[in-house]
Design brief:
about 170 residues; mainly alpha; 7 helices; ABC-2 transporter permease; ABC2_memb-like; membrane; transmembrane; transmembrane helix
Length: about 170
């Protein structure tokens, strides 16, 4: 597992550098907040499987002393840890940007909103990972884009339906 995690770190280090350098810049140009978090999430999930598709990793894994289950578990563990550290960095940069830059229009992240975004990203990853594992990268990527566009609309329609019908006693 340690070797697989190291492999994931090496493959995704370019994405890490992009996030580390571009996140503060996005706050300077007043684009920080939720759009940046969503962009990081979309980029990370697709990037996690992009290199495997390009290098035909599924064929190579058969020759290694790892099972497919261990490779997938390593991806999940890496994604959880990586997103946690990225979200901590987002929280730190957001607090620093709101302290030093007085022209930001969006509200700063609170611990509860930060935790909510982190949990949502974990739910999205848990939903999208099987598509990347089972299907081709391009199909899963297109599905991810449509899910990220239509998911919030469907969720808000469902919540509206729940409140309109007063299901479960919700007013």
């Amino acid at each position: 597992m340690k070797a697989l995690l190291k492999r994931e770190i090496l493959l995704n280090q370019s994405f890490l550098w992009v996030v580390l350098l571009m996140l503060p810049f996005s706050y300077v140009i007043n684009v920080g907040g939720v759009p940046v978090v969503v962009g990081v999430m979309v980029g990370f999930i697709s990037g996690l499987f992009y290199y495997d598709e390009k290098s035909s990793m599924d064929k190579f894994v058969v020759s290694l002393p790892f099972t497919r289950k261990e490779v997938i578990n390593a991806k999940y563990v890496f994604a959880i840890l990586f997103m946690f550290f990225i979200f901590v960095y987002v929280l730190f940069v957001d607090k620093a940007a709101h302290y030093f830059l007085d022209y930001l229009h969006h509200e700063p992240f609170t611990i509860s909103s930060w935790f909510m975004f982190y949990l949502i990203s974990l739910i999205v990853m848990a939903f999208l990972f099987p598509f990347y594992i089972k299907f081709s990268f391009m199909f899963a990527f297109i599905f991810q884009i449509f899910a990220m566009m239509l998911g919030p609309v469907a969720l808000s329609a469902f919540v509206y339906w729940l409140t309109k019908k007063q299901v479960f006693g919700i007013i």
